[in-house]
Amino acid sequence: MTRLILLLAAVLMSGVLRAQHLKFMGFPIEGTLEEFAAKLEDGKGFKKITRNGLRGTFAGYNCNILLNTNGASANKSDNIANITVRFNEYEIGSIDIFHNLSKWLSVKYGAYDECQDYYIKDSNGDYKISINRVWCNEYGTIVLNDGGNGGKCIELIYIDRENTTGNNEAKLLEDL
Known about the structure:
alpha+beta; eight-stranded antiparallel sheet; about 35% strand; disordered N terminus
């Protein structure tokens, strides 16, 4: 009986200790760049346009997706760490995209944790206000950027905590 209890405890603990990942379009952000790209191609109909870029539809909008790794060269074998979605085909309606995404992210993840306003310099040398809205949970961080005063490129970034920082907190604290 004691062995059964210990075995059951070990099984339960292994499930608790397994890495949890932020999800993107229903897929945990894990695996290699190639594996994750294949999931988006097969499961969501995206088309690969570069080694780490895809084109398709996200939340009803046409977009480009960039898959990023922690590797310096973004090799096909590197593990995926974050994903950037760019809605750059909607210059006129970009502020609507920003507000719609912000609303739906708040429905799914709750109120955003942080709103960052900062100035950016555009190509004409003029300064514009840019807004980041940030949602954080135990699996990672999601950042929505308006591109600066309804700019030309709304970006939505999913950053997986496990693949970005891993479980090596002692090493991180040493670096800081």
